[in-house]
Amino acid sequence: MKKGVSFLVTVALVALVSSLASASDPSPLQDTCVAIDEPKDAVFVNGKFCKDPNLTVAEDFFFSGLDKPGNTSNAVASNLTTVNVDKIKGLNTLGISMVRIDYEPYGQNPPHTHPRATEILTVLEGTLYVGFVTSNTENHLISKRPRGKVSADRDSTRY
Q: What gap in Å lies between CA 26 and CA 86, rounded to an integer?
């Protein structure tokens, strides 16, 4: 009899605790959280203050300039035009950034890291040697030489 009561009490307690326990993560995405520099009446999210959603406009999601080549007259013969939340305020909390890289022949993009990020390359003209090194103990190089359209005024063998 004691075993039966003990079992019922245990089942009742487990049922009670199970019905009260709930765990979930809040949705990490929202429609917009346009970054602003002036925190007057703003909400702080992801390192930036958010603009009042009722004041969001199309310009908060626009950048002009990725179509223009950058100045590659420097030591590494390349130029990065970055587009992130500092340039497009509407990218805040979305985890998105873009970059245009212009290279001269034999130009380079010095080794760098992207913690918890992704990089996708599109080669429009010429050939580019790209790759990454795994972070495990083997430090394995994974690389490729994608080719873009070869311009008539450039020798593709130089790339």
A: 26
What is the DSSP pairing of strand 130-133 with strand 48-50? unpaired
Query: Does an H or E element contain 17, and which?
Result: helix 2-20
In this predicted model, what pLDDT tens digit does every residue of 72-125 receive, in sequence order? Answer: 999 999 999 989 888 999 988 887 888 899 999 989 888 888 777 777 778 888
Tell me the pTM.
0.61
Six-digit token string for 49: 């203050």
Helix (H, G, I), strand (E, B) or coil at 7: helix
The residue whose two tokens read 């390349």 is 78
Burial of 85 (0-12, 13-18, 19+ CB in 10 A): buried
For residue range 32-86, what is the model confidence (pLDDT) as tens digits?
788 887 777 666 666 678 888 888 899 999 999 888 999 999 999 999 998 988 8
**Pair 63, 83: CB distance under 8 Å:** yes
Single out the residue of 99, 97, 153, 98 nearest to residue 125, CA to CA: 153
